[in-house]
């Protein structure tokens, strides 16, 4: 802030900020039903407010994770459910039926592309009880104390349960025990993502009352907690409320449209199709990291026009060494802030780098507050995957369940990436 402004210019600037907020707030904020504004999709990235304006914005924050009863069936019996015969367990009639219900429901929700709009949940909702839930609570800004304070309001959003191999059970990994599903189009390359239910496609509900009603209204589309807002105190203007950005960060990106030469296997294209095409969510930054040398001409040539300005390619390997300028955790901190909607993919097939990142997200609430959705492939010793992952891995499928449960309990919509 320039301290050399004349008193007159400071008055004009402060008055301008005040009038901007009071008269134009409706253009940049959406109402959450209470008359208190929350950041809207497409809001300006630097919305100003002053304590003199008496505007009291509210925001949603993560509260707790609730595993579904079906998920608890798996976590309660790791010795019999997660062992060498996990494929045979999945193939049993009761588990095959539930797997078909879960994946079938995900496919149905994907087919009803919300495109940024909020829609009432449609279709057969009977299988939704199998899904786990992320719970949220509400805070409003206390103008006097200049801090966020608890407010009435609770919300929840569905997420696929942790079950089976933590992969799509319709994929080929279980061989003869593979579960069939009519209409399944996950492909044959072992990369099916039909079990993953990302935000916006997941049903959600909220109320501004203190407790959830017995018969809530469920919707799909961008939920009110998808992006948040954080407050910054300015010595001249008072409190600045800054809406979050939409950020995609990919460790192990390869090219946008292909991976190891396989056309259509590029993770960047899947995320773009899911969030931007599927939900009209445009990324402000699209930061990709890849160790293998890529052709800049090909990398940029594969991008859609609306991603070119947001795209950053870091074509070197990262590490987790303290003080290193290539530290992956420090990079995450440098490009994100709490309140951003951050989709983070960690899949570089290098446990010495991946595990410290995942453990840091598991253990640090501050770091976890910078990641909204996480996609990661946790390599463990599991019979169907040994031909791909190897035979000398120390961790078990139960360790994967424990890791994903802890990540979700720390506020991250963590999904098992294929």
Describe this structure in words.
The chain has helices spanning 7-28, 69-76, 78-81, 86-91, 93-111, 267-279, 296-301, 328-335, 351-363, 365-368, 386-389, 397-409, and strands spanning 29-31, 37-39, 58-66, 119-120, 132-142, 147-159, 204-207, 219-220, 229-234, 238-243, 246-251, 258-259, 262-263, 285-289, 311-314, 341-346, 373-376, 413-416. With 418 residues, the chain is of the alpha/beta class. The radius of gyration is 23 Å and the shape is globular. The termini are far apart. The model is unreliable at 8-31 and 33-54 (pLDDT under 50).
Task: Looking at this protein, list some descriptive labels.
four-stranded antiparallel beta sheet, 418 residues, alpha/beta
What's the structural blueprint in terms of helices and strands?
Layout: H1 7-28, E1 29-31, E2 37-39, E3 58-66, H2 69-76, H3 78-81, H4 86-91, H5 93-111, E4 119-120, E5 132-142, E6 147-159, E7 204-207, E8 219-220, E9 229-234, E10 238-243, E11 246-251, E12 258-259, E13 262-263, H6 267-279, E14 285-289, H7 296-301, E15 311-314, H8 328-335, E16 341-346, H9 351-363, H10 365-368, E17 373-376, H11 386-389, H12 397-409, E18 413-416
Parallel strand pairs: 11-14, 11-16, 14-15, 16-17, 17-18
Antiparallel strand pairs: 1-2, 3-5, 4-8, 5-6, 6-7, 9-10, 12-13
Helix pairs in contact: 9-12
